[in-house]
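Hey team,

Filing this mostly as a record. A colleague (T.K.) asked me to run one chain through the structure pipeline before their review meeting, and I want the input and output archived in the tracker in case anyone asks later how it was produced. No errors, nothing strange. Just documentation.

Input sequence:
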Amino acid sequence: MSVTKRPTIRDVAAEAGVSKSLVSLVFAGETGVSQERREKVLAAAKKLGFTPNLWARSLSSGSANFVAMIVADLHNPLFTEIADFARKDLLEKGINTVMAAAVISERNGKKILEASTVNSVLDLRPRSIFIVGGLPDYKALKSVPASVPIVMATGITTQLPRAITVRSDDNEGMRLLVKHLVGLGHQRISYVGPVDEAVSVLRRAAYEKAMFDAGLAKFAHIEECDRTESSGYSAAKLLLSSPTKPTAIVAFNDIIAIGAQDAVDQAVEAGGPKVALTGYDNVYISALSKVSLTSIEQEKAAIAHKAAELLADGDLAEEFRGKEILLLPKLVARESTTTAPVK
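Output structure:
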């Protein structure tokens, strides 16, 4: 069985009738090459099916025209959707990406980010780093050279004071949810979610503030749970079995809400009243007809677009160094909150 050899820079140079160094200059994006010779090289590359080896180039030159993405949790559609939006935006700017899933371990009861997650991409010398989602700790990222911009989407950290944060305003998101539910006649609005890192702490506080501002502080109730469907189900089950059960439940995110939805549906099947339910993130699953979950759209595409701008432009990244960029979220109402509370 014959194996087709991958075309090299030498093959492109021979096809175009130019030197190997000129081909390297073209694919490095150097501006000192005439348009005629550049087009000749690109035509030869296209004919041969040549694509440059980005990793070899970055290791030999000491830098590369690609962005390293670290995704906190590949099981969370919010993070993968934002990462994909950013990837497409960067590709339109001529910038490639390499993605790594965060490797998280537990030691002495605490979750930590393994340094291997960061080292694997740092070894390739990326132009900038994009962190999607919140991480349990950021110690491994302190080794990132000061010249490499770090942009975070949806996450918050005080451990990386130079990082740029792009996320939606959780206070506004929770205000919209509570206002929506109050408008439907709800007062006993409970919250389910984790308190495991900065965003979860902030979103829980935003719920408490929204309830206080609505004059419903005495009805505020929180049931803690992990970031899983099964944990959301268990938390909602506890709420719905209490003597002062809520008429509405606000979940930290859509994944937890989808788990809680099973508990709500089971309660209805057992003869109980329908309980309104909301999520947060508006991931694609929420729009499915069998789920139809009211949620908060964090403006994922806008977050990714702003992050891509910062990742692609070193001067712009320096201008926003250490700053937080907040975008306004919006409410997407669906069938999970159409039922008025039982009087």
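Quick notes for T.K.: The radius of gyration is 25 Å. The longest strand covers residues 66-71.
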